[in-house]
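Sample 1 of the test manifest.
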Amino acid sequence: MSPAAADDEVLGRVYDARLVRRLLEYVRPQTRLIAASLALMFAVTAAGLVQPWLIKRLIDEHIVTRRLAGAGSIALLYLAVFLVEQVTRYLQLYTMERTGQNIIRTLRDRVFAHLQRCDLAFFDRYPVGRLMTRVTTDVESLADLFSSGVVSLLGDSLKLAAIVVILLWLDARLALVTFTIVPALFLLSVFFRGRIRQAYRDVRRRIARINAYLQEAISGMLLIQLFRREAEDRRLFDSINREHRDAELRSVVFESSFSAIIELIGALATAAILWYGGGRFLRGALTLGTLVAFLEYTGRFFAPIRDLSGFYAVLQAAMASLERIFALLDDRPAIVSPAVAQPAAAASGRVEFDAVRFAYAPGREVLRDISLTIEPGEKIALVGATGSGKTTLVKLLIRLYDPTSGTIRLDGRELRDLPLPWLRRQIGIVLQDHFLFTGTVADNIAFGCGPLASERIEAAARLVHADEFIRRLPGGYGEPLLEQDALRALLRGRTAILIAHRLSTIAGADRILVMHHGRLAEQGTHRALLARGGIYARLCALQFGWEEELNARGARAAAAGAADAGAGPEEPLFAEPRVATDGEPA
Amino acid sequence: MSLLRRHLRPYRRDILLGFGCLLITNALALTVPWLLKRVTDALRQGTTMRTVAGLAGAIATISLLLAAIRTASRLLILGASRRVVYDIRNELFAHLQSLPASFYATRRTGEIMSRAVNDLQLIRSLCGPGILNILNIVVLYSIGLTMMALIDPRLTLLAVLPYPLMLYGVFRVSRVIHERSNATQDQLAAISNKAQENLSGVAVVKAFVREDEEIAAFGELSNEYRRLSLRLARSRGLIVTLMGGLGGLSTIIVLWLGTRHIIDGRLTLGGLVAEMSYLALLTGPTIMMGWVLGVFQRGLGALQRVEAILAERSDLPGDRVAGDGPPPAGAVSLRGLTFAYAGADRPALRDIRLEVPAGSVVGVVGRVGAGKSTLVRLLAGIHPIAPGMIILGGRDLTTIPTAQLRARLGYVPQETFLFSRSVAENIALGRPGVERADIERVAALAQLTGDLPDLPQGLDSLVGERGVTLSGGQRQRVALARALLMDPALLILDDALSSVDAETEEAILKGLRGFLRDRTTFVIAHRVSTLLDADLVVALNDGRVAEAGRPADLLAAGGAFAAMVRRQQIERELEIL
């Protein structure tokens, strides 16, 4: 299955050596941070475990014997160790977080950069939403692996091992009695962790359902009201709301009992230590200090066991995300820049289509046998109805797609043999189904030409009469813009293919190509085509009327502002899309 | 607050019982250190094994009871908080249903959702863990400190010295954490938006060779996110250090002073052990308290926002009149209808006068913004109007209860909205529980029957993201069937067939002829030619009636309507070519 199609919900293997090896590639640059984190972790663990031992000495050597001399130094040592523990813990947590953030940042940037290289056919196949999950959620779930995962795993294991050794050293028999709680503690932790995770997942799933329902109910509220659906809708919402509440109540059961039961185990351990250890003390087999130290060490058992019991889930989620991320990174784009030197000179701009055919999906041809030649510097207007293939033609020219058959050449060289960025910089185009970035006017005009001085942008805008229009916008040149006229000014002196919006543009073109059902149906000058009385002449008749309407609308919008703001969008009666918009799959 | 009080009332028994359990729990918990003291002192004095075993057994027994009652107290109080939130959410939802279009026009969906989801989570924390922890700390402090003082008053006083600092520190830092966590989430959202924008516009990025700039821009956002995450991690680390540090400080004070007091003979070893366990019992709730103060702050804010929405009222005259009665008949009379949207400086409709006999088909044409949609929206009672302007079946629209007005109203809005339910459920929107045969009948009228075999489960196919993707035309026909099922006296088609192809549209209109005979229909049509059969055509221009009359007369007059029809003929020709 292809990467993006893999189900996001499926959790894969918990440990996959191949994935981990690849991840190491990202971990390696952080070696120094990791080393520091490990060293700090040793310090934290040691400092934490020395404390009960100091208490034991305080009791046995000073309290029981009532000897104050030397007690002060033990107390000072305790204070020092304690401070070291606090400071190193802070540093260790931070170093660990930093390691993780560095790694996932690299990974996130690499995923994004990879997506920039994927070809358009790839984006036709995979919904944007799913790709977004790779860039955000999947990468994020790796953060847990680093911040609460690997290093903590080592730290916790180390801590547990150390406690076991210390307890055995202090009093082997009491230690063995104490250890009897460990399996119970671990099993219960695993059990509750699993249940709580499941319960929380349920809660999240149901809150998501509430979200989805609300989203829809609020967006469709008018319909609910117009169709008097309120009561029925309340009933439906209530059932979803109730399901969420019940899931919450289930999670409350585990939440409420988990900590109580863990506390209970702790108390039972205390009772056991007191009972067995007390007996040994009475027989003189151990000191009071040892007994208190046992109680202290046992208290430190709990946190690491609890954390360890949660590690499995973190690892599982991380591996599933890693698998999806790497699968995405492995997807090789079909359209890549060939390894050739960039031509020294700019293209003169001779474009040839030779028997070009193209289909987005097999069997559904959008372009059928297109052959044409455009001379250097020539200005071409592409005209045609929705779905006639205008936009596709341009997409092939800049190699957003490769033709199914036939060849396209620029200055006599096949497109596949030209460096991709170079090729795309050579041809000025204005795409119809334009997606403009939510930038500012200045950004949009400068698009594709690198940074430009703002005077040049304004000059360009004036050229296309956009200047006045832009200045009227509340923010002037800083206003976010959804108009693309201004781009055209930058096409001067280049081979230009315009998908025409307006009659004025068409009239200014050297040649007009009329597309119809994927074929080149008519071509020639405005005059010649009008005289011919074919498709173009009819399109013009429509355009003319449409343009009148458009102008009227522009003038009114400027004058009236948002007079109709509450009315909801209204389509023009004679929808311009028929002629002007291209609805091909983008 | 009154909202909360009102919703807590039904659960007051649970809550009181929970409080009782909590009290017992804490009392029991506070006996354990006392028992520890007795064991230690007994051991110190060389007691018998029997005593030790008895005390250890007592600890085990009490702990068992403790676990059970603590679980019960949490179940009761946390459970009540979940139920309260469920009730408030239902109330909020019902209230949202009563709010008019003007409410929704001024608020984004996300904002309303945030009230019904996020704010309710905050309220949940306020009345669950919030109340629980406050109660906990009151009981623990009052009993615990007394017990500690009984053992060694000076030691106790010095031991709790760091506590106010801990409380204040946690409160302050948790606020910083809250802010930083929001900032980090916002940055993550910015990354998402950037990715969304980039991936949706990938063709443009490539066409203009913007890949490197995009990667750089994304990298900047990504790095900023890293920076913010680390900043958040620092304050999280700080809170851990603060908690551990101040808690540990208390332990050190007790340990050092305790040792001296023991040596001075003012304290027993058991007393020291007890003091340390009491401290351990107090530390957790003190830390929680710092967090709970923040929960209270945010919870009260959320409560205010939810109450503000609940205070909103409908501005529709029809929502202010009550009463049962038949829906209005189909005759429509517009008497100088003038209307302006709130905040607009020009009216959307001016002085519209029109008499429409029941059973007529009225075509409404005009440019974008001419007021076509506004006109039909007013007929459906979506916006508030002054009395005397619209008369439906002889009754002033402002005196008709909204529910009555819409009982036999069929409305197909310009923007088709289908719910993520089955096709049948979408059709039966206004008539839940209707007979299957009726659904099939209107589906046939809307020319949907032919499309059903192509859908995986026919009428029962789910629509939307998780189901089938219907074409624009299919969606519009579902919306039409939905309106027809209302058995409307007044049917409104607001550009309702724009995505339906011409042939199907013709078939639909032909099939509807009989259905429409005794109903009043307002049609805003995409293809003007379909209005040639209308009884009346009204051309609007800039909110006024430009021309009105029988289609044939308007064609003959050669005005705006005639021009529209002519242009559409050319379009047709092109389609055929």
